[in-house]
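Whiteboard transcription, Tuesday session. T.W. wrote the structure tokens on the left side:
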């Protein structure tokens, strides 16, 4: 057989191409798995994008529960291995060769990964989380067992405290992982993870964690889509915080109350500034909010007591349905000024006065249209308001005695 001899130059080109760092060979990821007692069953590999999950491949385990995947990836990212109803999250980077072992009866709680520092970090977090979730399940069992006992309220108080202890242990552990691994892509899974129905980290209260991770990933994954998404979120939070700080300065005690002009359910317009000279309670509430409805009854007593002394309530409703709002006003017999734009939480007035999600919320506005106090605690607001109104009554009485 005649041999074909390639030119020396062509050999060199083939060799150089094969060694190129950008070749598809280096983009390949290998996953080798062994799940005990998971024989001849399906394993699905999916890619977790920003908003969607995309299936990548699936295989059937062999008679020993072994399987493997070979996939080409474009960039580091999050991937899910699905075993029946159990899911394990991996962070895959180009060139990774990962081995995974687990027990079929508790894959997410027993799996062990080698060959990927990123995935090993997630494994550490996942195992701690699974142990804490088991503790929560035990609390639920105790709750159901004791819910008809005569001393249940005392028991429930202890169970609530036990849950809070578990939750804060979870948050502390996760926070330590973030502080030690801010440049890990796995930190994005940890910082966005929920514990049951509750978020572990709040993007406002725990913003320093989000900022720390953002700074770390800027160095290690500057062009990664998951980092970019996180970075945009951080920028949005920073903007929101700056706006909130500016609005808090504008709404500080002693500052003039911003104007509100809105209509009641009959279409009559009322402006807040028209109440200049009166002590005003600016009251944010909603017909659908149970606490607001209870507060309405307390305010009625307060209004009846002080309305003849220059006190007025300007109630702004966060409702969206006129009939519901109107019915609540009539049922609760609210005689003060009731206005709304029926835009619910999307009303510009809510942003103007930085009203929190939980209702009700109050501002006390004095006779010069200045903010005297604000807050969500009705009893504190009531005491402050009554002290102010009683003080005005004494001053007015003293003035009359001097004149006459």
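and on the right, the sequence the group agreed on:
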């Amino acid at each position: 057989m005649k041999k074909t001899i390639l030119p020396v130059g062509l050999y060199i080109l083939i060799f150089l191409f094969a060694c190129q760092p950008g070749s598809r060979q280096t983009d390949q990821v290998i996953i080798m798995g062994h799940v005990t007692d998971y024989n001849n069953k399906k394993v699905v590999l999916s890619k977790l994008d920003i908003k969607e999950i995309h299936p990548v491949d699936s295989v059937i385990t062999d008679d020993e529960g072994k399987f493997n995947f070979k996939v080409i990836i474009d960039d580091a990212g999050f991937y899910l291995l699905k075993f029946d109803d159990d899911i394990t999250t991996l962070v895959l980077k180009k060139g990774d060769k990962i081995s995974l072992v687990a027990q079929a009866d508790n894959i997410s709680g027993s799996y062990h990964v080698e060959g990927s520092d990123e995935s090993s970090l997630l494994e550490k977090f996942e195992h701690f989380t699974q142990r804490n979730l088991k503790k929560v399940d035990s609390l639920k069992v105790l709750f159901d067992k004791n819910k008809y006992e005569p001393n249940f309220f005392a028991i429930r108080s202890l169970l609530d405290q036990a849950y809070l202890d578990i939750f804060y242990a979870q948050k502390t552990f996760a926070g330590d992982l973030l502080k030690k691994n801010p440049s890990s892509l796995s930190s994005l899974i940890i910082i966005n993870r929920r514990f049951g129905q509750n978020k572990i980290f709040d993007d406002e209260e725990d913003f320093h964690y989000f900022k720390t991770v953002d700074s770390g990933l800027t160095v290690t994954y500057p062009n990664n889509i998951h980092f970019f998404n996180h970075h945009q979120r951080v920028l949005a939070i920073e903007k929101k915080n700056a706006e909130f700080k500016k609005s808090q300065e504008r709404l500080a005690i002693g500052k003039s109350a911003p104007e509100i002009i809105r209509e009641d359910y009959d279409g009559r317009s009322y402006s807040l500034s028209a109440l200049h000279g009166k002590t005003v309670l600016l009251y944010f509430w909603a017909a659908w909010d149970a606490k607001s409805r209870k507060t309405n009854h307390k305010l009625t007593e307060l209004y009846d007591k002080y309305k003849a002394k220059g006190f007025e309530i300007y109630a702004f409703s966060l409702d969206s349905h006129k009939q519901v709002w109107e019915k609540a006003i009539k049922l609760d017999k609210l005689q003060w000024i009731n206005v709304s734009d029926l835009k619910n939480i999307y009303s510009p007035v809510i942003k103007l006065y930085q009203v929190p999600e939980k209702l009700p919320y109050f501002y006390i506005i004095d006779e010069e249209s200045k903010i005297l106090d604000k807050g969500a605690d009705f009893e504190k607001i009531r005491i402050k308001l009554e002290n102010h109104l009683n003080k005005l009554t004494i001053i007015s009485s003293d003035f009359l005695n001097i004149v006459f």
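Someone added at the bottom: The chain has three domains: 8-115, 126-249, 261-399.
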